[in-house]
From TrEMBL:
<dbReference type="InterPro" id="IPR020625">
    <property type="entry name" value="Schiff_base-form_aldolases_AS"/>
</dbReference>
<keyword id="KW-0704">Schiff base</keyword>
<comment type="similarity">
    <text>Belongs to the DapA family.</text>
</comment>
<dbReference type="GO" id="GO:0008840">
    <property type="term" value="F:4-hydroxy-tetrahydrodipicolinate synthase activity"/>
</dbReference>
<dbReference type="Pfam" id="PF00701">
    <property type="entry name" value="DHDPS"/>
</dbReference>
<dbReference type="InterPro" id="IPR002220">
    <property type="entry name" value="DapA-like"/>
</dbReference>
<dbReference type="GO" id="GO:0008700">
    <property type="term" value="F:(R,S)-4-hydroxy-2-oxoglutarate aldolase activity"/>
</dbReference>
<keyword id="KW-0456">Lyase</keyword>
<dbReference type="GO" id="GO:0009436">
    <property type="term" value="P:glyoxylate catabolic process"/>
</dbReference>
<comment type="subunit">
    <text>Homotetramer.</text>
</comment>
<protein>
    <recommendedName>
        <fullName>4-hydroxy-2-oxoglutarate aldolase, mitochondrial</fullName>
        <ecNumber>4.1.3.16</ecNumber>
    </recommendedName>
</protein>
<comment type="function">
    <text>Catalyzes the final step in the metabolic pathway of hydroxyproline.</text>
</comment>
<dbReference type="InterPro" id="IPR013785">
    <property type="entry name" value="Aldolase_TIM"/>
</dbReference>
<dbReference type="GO" id="GO:0005739">
    <property type="term" value="C:mitochondrion"/>
</dbReference>
Length: 216
């Protein structure tokens, strides 16, 4: 999907993203249209989080007409952070940005229970929605039925809308079109961030069920 050249020319920070809304009540109560920036996590030389640099970076990006920000996507290096650091990144980011900007937060963990707990902690810290990537350590066990149960239960128990995250290059698992269309029926699943390489799948998803814009 093409990016408006006037916006692309202004934006020299993190990769620009588009979000596809899934049909359902969550997407109707949270408008995810527009451009979101998946921001990097800044570190100090001792590997502690550099919140002063985070504040500086967000201050620069606030000058760009973005819809919002994604904290702890893949380039946010969430796998390298402790649980309390992950939550604090959300809390500080919410404090540093204006109230009209949406904040999405990557909250996935390897277990269903931990993902639900992290999602709700991030919601309490100020996330408007959470981004959930699929578990992948026990990849051979991650069949479609297992993934459906995982995402469905997380969406059931999460206090803010859920955005699915398909990132097969990192997880080794590509969420299928049938799985996505089933999950789209959940009232608390609001969108999809798809970083897969097969554009044909996106077209199929669009033809079968979805409406809106994509986070790619």
């Amino acid at each position: 999907m093409a990016v408006n050249k006037s916006v692309a020319g202004l934006f020299s920070g993190p990769k620009t993203c588009f979000l596809r809304k899934l049909s359902g009540s969550a997407s109707s109560r949270l408008d995810l249209s527009g451009i979101f920036a998946p921001i990097p996590t800044p570190f100090n030389s001792d590997e502690s989080l550099a919140f002063d640099k985070l504040e500086h970076n967000l201050g620069v990006w606030q000058k760009i007409p973005l819809r919002g920000y994604l904290v702890q996507g893949s380039n946010g290096e969430f796998k390298l952070l402790k649980d309390d650091e992950r939550v604090e990144m959300v809390r500080r980011s919410r404090h540093f940005i204006s109230k009209d900007k949406l904040l999405l937060a990557g909250s996935a963990c390897e277990s269903t229970r931990a993902t639900i707990e992290m999602s709700n902690l991030m919601a309490d810290a100020g996330a408007d929605a959470v981004l959930i990537i699929n578990p992948c350590y026990y990849k051979s066990a991650m069949n479609e039925e297992t993934l459906l149960k995982y995402f469905w239960r997380v969406a059931d128990e999460c206090r803010v809308p859920v955005v699915l995250y398909n990132m097969p290059a990192n997880t080794g698992i590509d969420l299928s079109v049938p799985l996505i269309t089933k999950l789209a029926k959940h009232p608390n699943i609001a969108g999809l961030k798809d970083s897969g390489a097969d554009v044909r799948e996106l077209i199929l998803v669009d033809q079968i069920y979805l409406d809106g814009n994509f986070l790619i």
